[in-house]
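pinging the channel bc i need a second pair of eyes. not urgent but kinda urgent?? the chain im working w is below, pasted from the shared doc
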Amino acid sequence: MATLKLTYFNLAGRAELTRLALYLGDIHFEDDRISMRRLKELKSSLPYGQLPVLTVDDTVMAQSHPIAKYAGTLSGLYPNDNPLDALKVDELLSHLMSMNNAILAVFGELDKNERAVKGKELVDVTLPTMFRLLERRLVTTSVGDPYLLEKLSLADLEVYLTVDMLKTNFLRDIDTSTIPDGYTHVMRIYNAVKEHPKVAEWNHRKN
């Protein structure tokens, strides 16, 4: 087995899907959490000047979803043996990345007035629209119960992480905690992943 080191900040962000996938698969990895100061020191040596990166033996790899898919392959959470199932997982991961990007755009807005405007748009329009689309796709493409596929996959983990970010009010001054509640299939996945023994164990370790 290759030696793995995942480098990111000391927060969930774009590395938590990989962390969780590796942990659920009992894949040993170094969880390297660094400061912004350390990032400035490393920036010129990183493939795209940003985090996360995964060092596999001596090879440094970048971009959060390819890294997560590699971790999912090692952990049995990415269906490499079934192209259609892999496509279903990839589709949901892409949609959830768009949702996360919309949330992070508001998170990164420093102007108070602009943040208020963008936050209202996010809560009233963007997230409800994206959740409706997600719910509809889960209804039409899911083959498992409660998961997207017949067993847990990266897509389910990302649904859980996205919903959890909203329910714990990641944006702090903008209440997003109840936005996901009306979406039955989304919440079924969220609750099933949250109650998974290894996920509960990971969350306990974090706290």
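so The beta strands are 4-9, 30-34, 53-56, 59-62. and The mean pLDDT is 96. — does that match what u expected or am i reading it wrong
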